[in-house]
Amino acid sequence: MAKYLASEYGKEVVEDAFRIHGGYREVPMLLIGEGTAETQKMIVGRSLLEEYQATGDRGDDAVLQDPRPVRRGGLDRAPVVPLPHRADRRGRPHRDPQARLVPPHAGHPHDARHADRRETAGQVLIACLQAAVIIFGSALLFGVNWGQPVGVAAVVILFALVGAGAGTFLGTLFRNEQQATGVSLLLAWGSARSAAAWCHWRSSRR
Amino acid sequence: MVPLEVFSPVMRRVAHITAQAWGNDAFARLAGHGASITGILPQLGVLAAYAAVLLTLAAWRLRRVLVG
């Protein structure tokens, strides 16, 4: 009984410790992983803006002081006036940051200009760190020889850039993580099945 | 993941649509054949091209999504 009790308590303590320290370890990564904090701020800012009445010629501050936050009780929404449509000569929407509604601290155009670079830099950093763990870990633990260090570093950095580009691009095509995961699984499964079917067809013809 | 070496020549060529195949080739040359960075320049070039195209697409899409 004493052994059982001690084991149970021990397990609880260790699990708590894992949760606390695991969380501590993960939290700094959350700031740059799966969308940098800047990107999240911009998404929050944009969704908040959908709730505001938009007028074109008033300044940002005037709009933000508009005391009409909406969605009281979820049903009576204030009418949302679409942003004034300005177009350049080719009919494309005019991209003047002053004409856009932006809260001062979230979704600022300044963020928008740099968000993609920060997003990419964060992803590249994480990918390189992961590669470094694998490469140095396997070299130290198992004596794996990866070849010329300069060459390995070049491949890792370029491949991290490829991954960051592909990940960011695909991420913009879907509304949430579930969609992206679902589509990627479907693609992977579909291509694997077609490859298997093709190999089967080839071998049956021989 | 299946090693590229076990693929038939045709499938190996098909697999080289992916950036992973080029990265795999580069690592195979570095580790397997003791190549230096000059020995993997073609692979690095292809990876750089992939990175340039994908990052351009990503920056364009991300700005559209975020700025609207």
Please give a structural write-up.
Chain A is mainly α. Chain A has helices spanning 2-30, 37-49, 60-65, 109-142, 149-173, 177-205. The longest helix of chain B has 27 residues, at 41-67. Chain B has one domain (4-67). Chain B has 3 helices and no strands. Chain B starts with 8 loop residues before the first helix and ends with a helix. Chain B has helices at residues 9-15, 19-32, 41-67. Chain B is elongated. Chain B has 68 residues and is mainly α. Classes of the chains: A mainly alpha (206), B mainly alpha (68). The A-B interface holds A 39, 42-43, 46, 95, 100, 107, 109, 112, 115-117, 119-120, 144-148, 150-152, 154-155, 158-159, 161-162, 164-169, 172-173, 195, 199, 202 and B 8, 11, 19, 23, 26-27, 29-31, 34-37, 39-40, 43-44, 47-48, 50-51, 53-59, 61-68.
Give the topology:
The complex is a heterodimer of chains A (206) and B (68).
Chain A: H1 2-30, H2 37-49, H3 60-65, H4 109-142, H5 149-173, H6 177-205
Helix pairs in contact in A: 4-5
Chain B: H1 9-15, H2 19-32, H3 41-67
Helix pairs in contact in B: 2-3
